[in-house]
Amino acid sequence: MDERGTTLLEMLVVVALIACAIGVAAPAIRAYSVEAHLLGAGRAFKAEFLKTRSMATRRGVYTAIRFERSGDDAYFSVYMDGNGNGVRSTDIAAGRDVRVVGPIPLTARAPGVRVGFNPGIPAVPPDSGFLTGDPIQFGSADILSFSPLGTATPGTFYLAGEGAQAAVRVNPGTARVRLILSRGGRWVER
To answer: Would residue 146 count as lying in a domain?
Structure first.
């Protein structure tokens, strides 16, 4: 007989090899997925920051993102200056600076991503030490303000995923908005 085919033993060996390959690749695929969700959320927040800066320069009025909390819920809103002195918490409370967008829930809009820090992540250079404290760092009022000239309040907004950390940073003076990711303890711009 000259019939050709595969034996059951050969098929079991192939299935075992495929299972081993999947087992080895699964952690890498999961890490890639977490990073992709983290970068997607970071890009969404970066886009909101850039949109607000554009609104300020286009309309010629101070415009700001205010990060707000109500109990356990957190959200952000965009406000425009109503009296020529910049967006301020007291003017928002008095109704002089008006909300033009929001409130929008401050969820990262991505599975497994939250506003916060992972333990043991080094601070973004030129800072030293490790990330601690408030993950929203735009002054004591948590307001990211853009001027009609395009300058901004400097600060950083942190996002965390399982084993991954990202930051959306606004540079002083230039108001350049950067998305950076921590990889192996090093911050890399994305």
So the answer is: yes
